[in-house]
Design a protein that fits this description.
This protein is mainly alpha-helical. It contains 14 helices and 10 strands.
Length: about 450
């Protein structure tokens, strides 16, 4: 492997790990705030128990995410010094604002965790709301920086250097709105379905426990609403990419030749040698309709661009297909949940439906990973699209194999520690009987 390959592999591993905690940092506080709000509204202690349990999970994930994010920030400077030298003065504003959002989240998470019975209920809930706002803003600011890499703005390029820098215009670049909306919805969908999947699995063994029933309902509301709205965000993103990154759209869809009325491909494997996408199901004129809202619109293929500016269509297309398939599955399951609940709420707790939710639990997280891969691989060979190639941004210093191995082991240890902490924290669940008794009973035999 070349130094560029090692740098890209190390960065991919770091991002793939950290993004899961970033997603949890955006979605989990929303769940705990909703649970506490329900407790204040109804007085039922099951909601307070849920808020406390989810707050503990949030704190564990926040702590590990802070560690992995700190490592990631150092790695940006170590692996990509030329990129940081060029971009630091242009896109530094969202990184600074993310720092404020992070510390806001950390401060009020501390108040939330240790303020039970020490501050008024409304003040305690307000601290949770600020944790949720801080988490969402933290994610938004980071995504605007990534959007700038896809759609650079806020500066003039003169002799290879940025001049006339306008940091606010850089942060509010043309791609920022579509990317941030898409990411926030993805975080809510992934977090909601992950939590719903865990409680659905536990309900299969503990069907009458009100604790898991209420948890499933809240998680499905958050995750399901986001999953149903996500296709609208995806449509906005697709039309933006069609206008501003046509080579990326061609790679996403396995479109090699320029043609009007281009088909939408479901599945398939791009074959670069023959410039076809094999085994795909083609919907006539579907891509033109979705990308331009015109069934006869002309869609540029990869062949319209220089070969050295192509993203690799194989991993980009496959990752995109996986993301769309997973998102579709979550949206359909969300609609099914709404229909079942509308007919009779007890339908949410049938064995077949619980199995479906449990199986769909990790799908949102897998979609996040696939979507991030689409964003990054689809921009290649550019670190900053049209401005700086990835090969120009990498560190000139060799010897990256040892750091790659070290950080891989470090993140493996962090992942194992996170799983151990969460399993230890949530080894048993409180038992609330069905109905409105409102009393948590000792955990019965066999419910651990």
């Amino acid at each position: 492997m070349t130094e560029l390959d090692l740098a890209r592999a190390q960065m991919a591993m770091l991002f793939a790990f950290h993004i899961l905690f970033a997603v949890a940092g955006m979605g989990m506080p929303v769940l705990m705030v909703i649970a506490e709000g329900a407790h204040l509204r109804t007085g039922h202690p099951v909601y307070a128990a849920l808020a406390r349990r989810w707050a503990k999970g949030t704190s564990v994930l926040f702590a590990v995410g802070a560690v992995s994010g700190t490592v990631l920030s150092f790695e940006l400077g170590l692996l990509w010094p030329r990129f940081m030298e060029f971009a630091g003065g242009v896109i530094g504003l969202p990184f600074a604002l993310e720092g404020f959002a992070f510390f806001t989240e950390a401060i009020f998470l501390g108040i939330y965790l240790y303020g039970w019975d020490r501050v008024s209920p409304r003040l305690h809930l307000a601290s949770g709301v600020l944790v949720a706002i801080g988490g969402v803003l933290s994610g938004i600011f980071i995504v605007t920086a990534n959007a700038w890499m896809n759609s650079p703005a806020g500066f003039t390029l003169a002799h290879g250097r940025p001049v006339d820098v306008f940091p606010l215009a850089a942060m509010l670049n043309p791609a920022s709105a579509t990317e941030t909306i898409h990411m926030v919805l993805a975080a809510f969908a992934a977090s909601g379905f992950a939590v719903a999947g865990i409680h659905a699995f536990l309900l299969l063994k503990d069907r009458e426990n009100l604790f898991h029933r209420k948890a499933l309902e809240i998680a499905l509301v958050v995750g399901g609403a986001a999953a149903v709205l996500q296709p609208l965000s995806g449509d906005m993103s697709a039309r933006f990419v069609a206008r501003n990154q046509p080579v990326k759209l061609a790679a996403l869809e396995g479109q090699f030749e320029t043609e009007p009325g281009a088909p939408l491909r479901i599945g398939g494997i791009p074959d670069v040698a023959s410039r076809t996408t094999r085994y795909a199901i083609e919907i006539p004129k579907g891509l033109s309709l979705l990308a331009y809202h015109d069934p006869d619109a002309r869609v540029q293929g990869l062949a319209a661009f220089p070969r050295d500016e192509w993203p690799n269509p194989v991993p980009v297309h496959l990752a995109f297909q996986a993301m769309v398939a997973g998102g579709t599955a979550m949206a359909l399951l969300s609609l099914a949940a709404a229909l079942r609940s509308w007919k009779k709420r007890e339908n949410l707790f049938s064995r077949r439906f619980l199995i479906a939710v449990a199986l769909c639990g990790p799908v949102g997280l897998l979609c996040v990973e696939a979507g991030w891969g689409v964003t990054e691989m689809g921009r290649q060979p550019w670190a900053i699209r049209g401005v700086m190639r990835t090969a120009e941004a990498v560190t000139p210093v060799g010897g990256l194999l040892l750091p790659f191995a070290f950080f891989s082991l470090l993140y493996l240890a962090l992942g194992a520690a996170t799983i151990w902490l969460l399993r230890r924290e949530f080894a048993t669940s409180p038992y609330f009987p069905p109905g409105d008794e409102g009393v948590a009973l000792p955990v019965p035999e066999g419910r651990e």
